[in-house]
Design a protein that fits this description.
This protein is of the alpha+beta class. It folds into 2 domains: 152 residues, Jelly Rolls, CATH 2.60.120; 224 residues, no CATH class. The chain is 37% helix and 17% strand. The chain is built from 10 helices and 16 strands. The strands form 4 sheets. Strands 3, 4, 6, 7, 8, 9 and 11 form a 7-stranded mixed sheet that branches. The longest helix is centred in the N-terminal third of the chain and has 35 residues.
Length: 495
């Protein structure tokens, strides 16, 4: 056979052939990789939503418990008027843990109920709380109305009428009441909630027909505070679980492919020699939704919860890295990879929801780099770092950058923030006056771009480049202040 041309295969592992990583052919992903990643992301999203629900519920209960009680410690409803032409008004049967465990419904554990009632003309009124069976026996054959349903806003009551005649005895003469009050003017009954089936009765003290009363209900329950803190604690634990899952996934992926260290001053592969060794890239989605940016901040709340825990770990580990660099001139590799992952995760969320709005693709719950996501961050690991610079670069040398970042991102003026750390104004911080709030240049740029997108379905490329440039600047300063590189960050928006 003539014309045979020798062929040398230099590509990744394909069909059992060992290949070079420089192969121009696309590498095959492991079977099920995309579905597995989607499954992990969905699971983490679900866990994040559970954490959000628990924290929100606990916070709401705590707010109600601490701000809505009266001077006596009761949560009290507004005064409302109830009226019937019959002889009595009753509640539905109140089932208090009839089938529940006794320890949960011990006397006083569920708190107290307070009911106040008064007739508009000041005539004597009767209020009583008794076992439902006793009330049913007393009102058997008596014309009365039972409250079947109550609408809160606007207030409204639906009654179920029971036909009959007048009662045989005055209500105050009966002995089965657990708590009762009778007399002219406002009457007050306080009852410690107990296990059983109960009913509340309001009548005229003389058992006359046509009952009209102004009623106010109150509740005092110590378990609300305990429940609120329990929900908050549970939400924090679930948030930590979500963060732990993300860290574990990152460690597995990092163990599978460990990148070679890059010395301080050596550029990333593919970058020019004078490029700063922190690569922050972002691709503008050409088909952004006109309106989705209005709710992206809400959709990203599960990310905010997880990131809150991750940034706490980031700060603690950066302190550990500080001493490690001071004594060994090396940044611990595991801490470095984790901290870069936290910054990468934060950048993706900022690119999606707040500081750029450059994509509608939901960010993955991952510390690892996702080459297919339009926002990417790479920081090469330095082999050695200066022991002397670690003492001054994060607070003294970076001050000029903090001033610039304060202009870029503004925010609530909480004093001085280390550049690159997440704050209400976005990335960075800076010297800020404690008397005002400013959206910063980044906020103005993103707002103008979002409004333009809303009306024209077009995201101005120039505004995108400027917004991305401010974020890129902040991340470079953040990496420098977090001791990840010794090279001084450039004063520029581009790469």
């Amino acid at each position: 056979m003539t014309g045979t041309v020798p062929v040398r295969l230099r590509c990744g592992r394909a069909g059992g052939l060992t290949c070079s990583p420089r192969c121009p052919l696309p590498r095959r992903r492991p079977p099920g990789g995309a579905s597995a990643a989607f499954s992990r992301s969905s699971s983490q999203s679900l866990i994040g939503l559970v954490a959000l629900a628990l924290v929100a519920s606990g916070g709401l209960l705590l707010w109600v418990d601490k701000t809505k009680r009266d001077a006596d410690g009761y949560l009290t409803t507004p005064k409302e008027r109830l009226s019937t032409s019959a002889y009595a008004l009753t509640s539905e049967s109140l089932d208090v843990g009839v089938e529940g465990p006794d320890w949960l419904f011990r006397e006083g554990r569920l708190g107290k109920i307070r009911i106040s009632a008064a007739r508009p003309d000041g005539s004597p009124v009767f209020i009583g709380i008794a076992p439902d069976s006793a009330v049913q026996g007393y009102l058997a054959g008596v014309a009365h109305e039972e409250i079947a349903d109550i609408d809160v806003d606007p207030f409204g009551v639906r009654y179920e009428g029971k036909a009959g005649g007048p009662p045989r005895n005055l209500p105050g003469e009966e002995v089965f009441w657990a708590e009762k009050a009778s007399g002219p003017g406002q009457q007050l009954v306080t009852w410690e909630v107990a296990q059983g089936r109960w009913a509340v009765v309001v009548m005229n003290a003389d058992a006359a027909q046509a009952v009209t009363v102004d009623v106010r209900l109150g509740a005092e329950a110590s378990f609300i505070d305990e429940l609120a803190w329990g929900l908050l604690g549970g939400g924090m634990l679930v948030g930590l679980l979500c963060a732990a899952i993300a860290v574990a996934a990152f460690r597995r992926r990092a163990a599978a492919s460990v990148a070679a260290p890059v010395a301080a001053g050596e550029p990333l592969p593919g970058l020019e020699a004078d490029s700063y060794p922190v690569r922050v890239t972002g691709d503008l989605d050409p088909s952004l939704s006109r309106w989705l940016w209005l709710v992206k901040w809400l959709l990203a709340i599960p990310h905010y919860i997880v990131l809150a825990f991750l940034w706490i770990a980031f700060v603690v580990l950066t302190v550990v890295a500080f001493f490690a660099i001071l004594f060994t001139a090396q940044y611990p590799r595991g801490i470095f990879d984790f901290n870069v992952g936290v910054m990468r995760w934060t950048y993706r969320v900022a690119f999606y929801a707040t500081n750029v709005l450059g994509t509608d693709r939901y960010p993955p719950f991952s510390l690892s780099e996702d080459p297919e996501y339009p926002a990417r961050l790479e920081i090469p690991y330095p082999e050695r770092l200066s022991r002397g610079l670690v003492l001054v670069k994060w607070w003294l040398l970076a001050i000029p950058h903090y001033v610039v970042l304060g202009i870029f991102f503004g925010g609530w003026s909480w004093g001085w923030h280390a550049g690159g750390f997440w704050s209400p104004g976005g990335w960075g911080g800076g010297w800020q006056d404690d008397r005002f709030w400013s959206p910063g240049l980044n906020g103005v740029l993103v707002l103008f771009a979002a409004v333009t997108l809303l009306f024209t379905a077009h995201f101005p490329r120039s505004l995108f480049d400027l917004a991305l440039g401010t974020v890129r600047w902040a991340i470079r300063v953040g990496a420098y202040a977090a001791l990840m590189r010794d090279e001084y960050p450039p004063f520029r928006l581009d790469r």
